[in-house]
Design goal:
434 residues; alpha/beta; Rossmann fold; six-stranded parallel β-sheet; 15 strands
């Protein structure tokens, strides 16, 4: 029997209990940091040869030369062509929905001209080349291919380089098919910190990218953190999270399964339920114990729910929204009568699922919005992955004679005030003294 922690906002020590629940930090693993640092340094120095050696060591695949690591376009297209019809239809429909949603995020360049004909504006351009990390082997994450590659494609990125490990030579057909479907440019059968290093620094075979996106294990996350600055990264993601605000009219079996959907990711995932109804919380607890035995990932779910899960009794839905904003969850479900009203009180969440019919799982695969979301309270200041992550902005300034004279006087005063005489002189040269 699973017994989830129960908190009540009326308890005197509720805030301390909540903080203890939320401010979880995995133990710092100095061995992971040391290993990753060594791998990054080695790949930076020795390039292809280091990648080959680490691939043999960690993935148990031996390549005699780097050309064998690249997965050909023929193999990618064959994976798509031979995919069972239901799988292909699902993949294509999901891809279409993700494309349609992200097309609405495209930013455009703009400018305006002032009375003296000075032009100011912004030029929007796409990144040249991005790297996409996709978990591989027995685990199939075609959704990761779609969610990371499609916004890059929509943004106009010229080249997408995908890396995907193939432990013991095993390549996942769905992942390769997804890469073919969204027209990833090049795919390499490598993974781990060595793949991140190759993308960040470039090797003779693998081109250096401008930004690396995509999920991975602790070694991949640490490698991304360390190469940030050499290249851009999407985020360093923590364990998966779901927070559900539900009233007594919700189906307890549905809510229990929604909690499971995040808990089954791994033992550190966090599932939290908030409700003003004590009776409903008890009903969900009963559903959890009833449904858990049918879950293939039962042990993972149990560990996650008992160690990091919680049920929180609140007085009102307004109070539930306040707690949610403090937690700032990756996924937030509003399983209430009027989610459109409640969402007005929500400020911080990666993705918000409105209404009893809207489970988080559809967001992971096919709703359209991106499933790469901020975790660990970073939704307070971060957003989901999107087209804007693959575009950048350059400011445009074009001064007329009159504008150069007028702004030059202002700049001169401020530059002298900062003690930067060359700045001042540069602006003064352009002042019309007539």
């Amino acid at each position: 029997m699973i017994q989830i922690k129960k908190l009540n906002t009326q308890d005197q020590n509720f805030k301390d209990q909540l903080r203890q629940l939320i401010f979880f930090e995995a133990e710092e693993n100095t061995q992971i940091e040391k290993t990753v640092a060594e791998i990054l340094s080695d790949v930076k120095k020795r390039g292809d040869q280091a990648v080959i050696e680490y691939t043999k060591k960690f993935d148990h695949v031996e390549f005699s030369q780097m050309e064998e690591i690249e997965i050909s376009k023929e193999e990618l297209n064959l994976a798509l062509e031979t995919l069972p019809k239901p799988s292909r239809q699902a993949l294509e429909e999901a891809a279409k929905r993700v494309f349609d949603y992200h097309k609405k995020q495209l930013m455009s360049s703009w400018s305006y001209t002032e009375e003296d004909k000075t032009l100011l504006g912004q030029k929007v351009t796409s990144l040249d080349r991005v790297g996409l990390y996709v978990p591989g082997g027995k685990a199939a994450y075609p959704s990761s291919v779609l969610m990371n590659a499609i916004p890059a494609k929509v943004a106009g990125v010229e080249e997408i380089i995908m890396v995907v490990p193939s432990p013991y030579g095993e390549r996942n057909q769905l992942v390769l098919a997804a890469a073919a479907l969204v027209k990833v440019d090049r795919v390499f059968a490598i993974g781990g910190a060595q793949a991140i290093a190759a993308l960040a620094y470039g090797t003779k075979t693998i081109p250096q990218v401008d930004k690396i996106v995509g999920p991975g294990n602790a070694y991949v996350a640490e490698a991304k953190r360390r190469v940030f600055g050499v290249v851009g990264i999407d985020m360093v993601a923590g364990p998966s999270e779901i927070l559900i605000i539900a009233d007594e009219k919700s189906n307890p079996d549905w809510i229990a399964m929604d909690l499971f959907s995040q808990a089954e990711h791994d033992e550190l995932a966090q599932s939290i339920l908030i409700s003003p109804s004590e009776k409903f919380l008890n009903q969900v607890q009963e559903s959890i114990n009833k449904l858990i035995n049918d879950m293939p990932r039962k042990k993972i779910i149990e560990t996650s729910l008992m160690n990091r899960g919680a049920m929180i009794k609140v007085e009102t839905l307004e109070e539930a929204a306040e707690i949610s904003n403090f937690i700032s969850p990756e996924h937030l479900e509003l399983s209430v009568d009027d989610p459109d009203e409640l969402v007005k009180s929500i400020k911080h969440a990666g993705a918000i699922f409105l209404g009893r019919n809207t489970c988080e799982a559809v967001g992971d695969y096919c709703a359209g919005p991106n499933h790469v979301l901020p975790t660990s309270r970073t939704a307070r200041f971060s957003s989901p992955l999107g087209v804007y992550d693959f575009q950048k902005r350059s400011s445009l300034i074009k001064l007329s004679n009159q504008g150069a004279s007028k702004l030059g006087k202002i700049a001169s005063v401020l530059a002298h005030g900062e003690g930067l005489q060359a700045h001042a002189k540069s602006a003064e040269y352009r002042i019309d003294n007539e």
